[in-house]
Design a protein that fits this description.
One of its GO terms (molecular function) is procollagen-proline 4-dioxygenase activity. This protein has five helices and 14 strands. The chain is of the alpha+beta class. The longest helix is centred in the first third of the chain and has 15 residues.
């Protein structure tokens, strides 16, 4: 029991409520399909972005990419070998997609972290991890102040990949091949608001081609804090 708690974290009524609200919203959205697994709550939305929108995002990722980083040091230097790019949320073309995503989930755009672009060349990968924060790690107090836990993830494949590059959820038993324009949304929490370890996932190595995606992580509270004063 203690082990389970340590690994899975504690139930949280506030996060359970977010789970419920977003679930209600997604399940009444035409075009979304729930993945057939009881272990995690994951939805697909094929053709969420047009080819033009995908091409626009790929162009921006190529222009601004830098080596991807991790929140905590990892003993495996190959853990995350991709390149990333912070998408400019005030760029009108990016902002429109950002706001559409927030609206789809029914989460305030302020709770969304900056949308990230990811690029994987052959051999590059992001090994198995969970998107939620581990509340026992030294980084947690800082994250807690900046919007708290990550609740939902939205990820969009921006191109088809010749070979490899699937997003694999080994505990939930799902392997999702990249498909241009397809949105994948999942709840990092369980229904009771505790982190769901069954959302463990891996960006498998690309074998042939280049993989481009965007990832958007939503926090339980506002991530953007406005500091302007009104007189
Ligand atoms: O590249 C992928 O398929 C997964 C990316 C991912 O897990 C993330 O950005 O958090
Ligand atoms: Fe992830």
């Amino acid at each position: 029991m203690a082990q389970a708690l340590k690994r899975n974290g504690r139930p949280s009524p506030a996060r359970a409520r977010i789970s419920r609200d977003v679930t209600g919203r997604l399940e009444s959205t035409p075009g979304l399909r729930r993945a057939k697994t009881e272990h995690a709550q994951l939805y697909y939305y094929p053709d969420y972005l047009t080819d033009e929108e995908c091409a626009m995002l790929v162009e921006r990722i190529d222009a601004n990419r830098r080596p991807s980083t991790l929140l905590s040091r990892h003993e495996d230097p190959e853990f995350r070998t991709s390149e990333s790019c912070d998408m400019d949320r005030w760029d009108p073309a990016v902002r429109a997609i950002d706001e559409r995503l927030a609206h789809l989930l029914g989460i305030s755009p302020e709770n969304g972290e900056t949308m990230q672009g990811q690029r994987y060349a052959p051999g590059q990968q992001f090994r198995a991890h969970c998107d939620y924060f581990h509340e026992t790690e030294p980084y947690w107090p800082a994250m807690e102040k900046q919007g708290g836990q990550r609740t939902w993830t939205a990820m969009i494949f921006l191109n088809d990949v010749e070979e490899g590059g699937a997003t694999w959820f080994p505990r939930a038993g799902l392997r999702i091949a990249p498909k241009k324009g397809m949105l994948v949304v999942w709840n990092n929490m369980s229904r009771d608001g505790s982190p769901n370890y069954d959302t463990l996932h891996e960006g498998m190595a690309v074998i042939e081609g280049t993989k481009y995606i965007i990832t958007k992580w939503f926090r339980e509270g506002p991530w953007i804090r406005t500091s302007f004063q009104a007189y």
